[in-house]
Amino acid sequence: MSSTLSLLRARRFGPLFVTQFLGAFNDNLFKNALVVLLTYQTAQWTSLSPGLLANLAAGLFILPFFLFSASAGQLADKYDKALLARWTKLLEILIVLLIGAGFWLHSLAVLLAGLFLLGLQSTLFGPVKYAILPQHLGETELVGGNALIEAGTFVAILVGTLSGALLAGIEGGAPWITAGCLLVAVAGYLGSLRIPVAAPPEPGLRLNPNPFGETRRSIGFAREDRSVFLAILGISWFWLYGALLLAQFPAYTKDVLGAGEGGVTLLLTVFTLGIGGGSLLCKRLSGQQVEIGLVPLGALGLSLFGLDLAFASPVAAAGGPLGLAALLAAPGTLHVLADLFALGLFGGLFIVPLYTLMQLRSAPAQRARIVAANNILNALFMVLGALAAALLLAAGLSIPALFGVAALANALVMLYIFRLQPDFLHRCAIWLSSLGGLLKRDAPAADEAEKRP
């Protein structure tokens, strides 16, 4: 654990981590602040319904991942990734200034344009952050680096979401939102200045201006190695599963647990702590190599605890909104929280080896474009998951039942992937047998130590 955390002090990783963390924080700060403002002050901005506006905001943020990921991958393979990171952070500062102008002009169109551009900025940075890791970290450090990136991303999402809601709740909070976003953007740019040079693997690459044609080409690169493409499918499925769960938290807290906004924060916090703990535990269990045998273990936990969450959920909500103390004292709440923590924990065990496998098995000259293909499929899966959830809920399925359906679907998808790539299950069996052997060797030593005076 100490060796993994020591990467945060290394210049070849620490500045990238700071830049990524602050970027994810800022995206979620503004996105949630805007959603809260439009939810509670709708009449001041537009005649559209708050629900429609929330979905519109989510769609505008994710749209650039479909349109521009392939172009971002080309840029990251052609140019120095450290330089690209600085350009994207400068772009973020300009976008925040545009957002400030939107608040000053009281223009919803400008604010939504700013949200779209923040999505574009994240799209441009995406291939950089994952493709640069194998250039700056040794193969034995990649699992630890990815673990820290994943843990940091989820913590940034949580803290950014809470900060956005807090700033939006201040009377006349628009200047505070702008100032907060600008401060974080400038800090992110300063962090990016310390990212070491990452020489481009293909400086002679001719850029294809057609994003749709390049999207097909990037996915084609990913499909050249079966293990890489299956890893991308696994990563994309995880984001579908995780996004589906997170999207239900507000309604689940209100309608099933019978709690207020503090309950939503509690659920998000517990799930985030689970993801962070699972990501770091993955490094501990992997040792000095990528251990794909942990992927089936993570998949099993995601299904088992997803099903348990469905059955552990209360049948009916309490009479009125429960405070945090009353929620924690309510029957079944601790069981639900334990399931959410376990889902996050096994999610970390599942996702970190897949990201590392994608990086290690990708051709260096095409790695950023393969990461771009991963980002495109991640976005596609999340949209499909949201549509499927909306249809099932509209058909009368309860939220706990939706969790159960998602857990069963997770089991089926994982069985399909493991059938196509048996190495996952083979490595899992080897890892479990080696773990069992280690425990057997340690047991006699412990018994002998107890017998000593």
UniProtKB/TrEMBL annotation:
Keywords: Cell membrane, Membrane, Transmembrane, Transmembrane helix, Transport. This is Major facilitator superfamily (MFS_1) protein. One of its GO terms (molecular function) is transmembrane transporter activity. Its main location: membrane. Coiled coil: none annotated. One of its GO terms (cellular component) is plasma membrane. The chain crosses the membrane at residues 52-73, 93-120, 147-170, 227-251, 263-282, 294-316, 336-358, 370-393, 399-418. It is a multi-pass membrane protein. It comes from Azotobacter vinelandii (strain DJ / ATCC BAA-1303).
